[in-house]
Design goal:
Helix content is 46%, strand content 11%. The protein has an 8-stranded mixed beta sheet, with helices on both faces.
């Protein structure tokens, strides 16, 4: 009987172990950044890092859910410019800004469909906020310049600039300007837009009430690396690597720009935000599309994902705290490179060189 009991215990242990292994394997398969199977150790390693960060991110969202709040208050005199905003987190950001009675200018690829999308969640005939939709493809520098010129002509000041538009885990593609799409859309286009609109932000800022720039990044900045030798990833492209590079770039940019703004004593602050792990269409290229119920259970809703972004844009408690990386309504962990001023400056200058910007923030651009 003792032998039989030992065998039963061993079999039960093996079954439990197999079950756990099965859960882990399934979790890995259905949460990969791509629908395909990694083809090299480099790609496998990238996926393992994403798995780890995903778990840490979900735990962080759960742990700090109680502080993930934003208080909306009326600000009818303020003008906010946001890139994207016709879906996901951006749509809910626009909803909140309109609830503050702001004038909200959306830079989107299809202005008509964006207005329809916002009208689906906000009664535009009743809101005291004002919605304006302008054409913008942030991945096309010509479009960025045209958008910035229109905005600069229409408005004497801009109080808020929310660099929100982005892509994630997309297949390899070069933009018309010759840049990898993640780097171009998530980072470089916003770098240019901020340069062109900075004079209007300076005009809006005043002592005790800074104009604000908010860059929407991600926790995956922690595994990002700026590959200066192959910024477009031509030699070894992998979507997850391209995405994390672009998100680290946003943080390095944020930190150095704040240093420059502080040096000139401008009443402008720039912050960077991780909105959380959010159930949006950005995951369309990942394996998570096979298990939508998992995202519904464990991921944030777009409404919750929008909270820290709006918090960074309007909350009085962070007035004067530019350069801060925010997550779930408070400070969050970010890449060690962003704590080294020389590395922040290196990317900033590299970006200026790529775009042929001689004096960043003067709003001028020469072809």
């Amino acid at each position: 009987m003792c032998i039989s009991a030992d065998i039963q215990t061993l079999m039960l242990t093996m079954l439990i172990l197999l079950f756990v292994i099965g859960i882990v394997v399934c979790g890995f398969i259905f949460s990969k950044t791509t629908k395909g199977i990694p083809k090299s150790w480099f790609e496998w390693k990238t996926e393992f890092r994403y798995q780890y960060l995903g778990i840490v991110g979900l735990l962080h969202d759960a742990r700090y859910a109680s502080r993930d709040r934003v208080v909306l208050y009326k600000q009818p005199d303020r003008i906010a410019v946001i890139t994207g905003g016709n879906r996901g987190i951006g749509l809910r950001i626009v909803e909140k800004l309109l609830a503050c009675d702001m004038t909200v200018v959306m830079g989107v690829r299809d202005p008509r469909s964006a207005e329809v999308a916002v009208g689906g969640i906000v009664d535009l005939s009743q809101t005291k906020g004002k919605l304006i939709c302008e054409q913008l493809d942030v991945g096309d520098l010509k479009s960025v310049r045209a958008f910035a010129e229109r905005i600069s002509q229409k408005y004497q000041k801009i109080d808020l600039l929310l660099n929100n538009a982005g892509i994630m885990f997309a297949p390899f593609k070069l933009t018309a300007d010759g840049y990898e799409s993640h780097f171009a859309i998530n980072y470089l286009g916003h770098f240019m837009l901020t340069h062109l609109l900075l004079p209007k932000l300076r005009a809006a800022g005043q002592k005790g009430k800074n104009a604000r720039i908010v860059n929407v990044s991600s926790c995956v900045n922690l595994i990002g690396r700026i590959n200066y030798k192959d910024i477009n990833g031509l030699k070894n492209y992998y979507p997850g690597t391209a995405y994390s590079q672009s998100k680290l770039a946003q943080i390095l940019f944020t930190r150095h720009l704040q240093t420059l703004l502080d040096a000139e004593k401008a009443h402008v602050q720039v912050n960077v935000v991780h909105p959380g792990i959010v159930d949006t269409d950005l995951f369309e290229h990942s394996a998570t599309t096979a298990v939508p119920f998992f995202k519904k259970i464990f991921f944030k809703t777009p409404e919750r994902g929008s909270r820290t972004v709006v918090f960074a844009a309007i909350d009085p408690s962070i007035e004067g705290l530019g350069g801060t990386y925010l997550s779930n309504g408070g400070k969050g962990p970010f890449h060690a490179d962003a704590k080294q001023p020389e590395k922040c400056e290196k990317l900033f200058q590299h970006s200026c060189d790529l775009l042929k910007i001689k004096q960043y923030g003067n709003g001028e651009y020469t072809l």
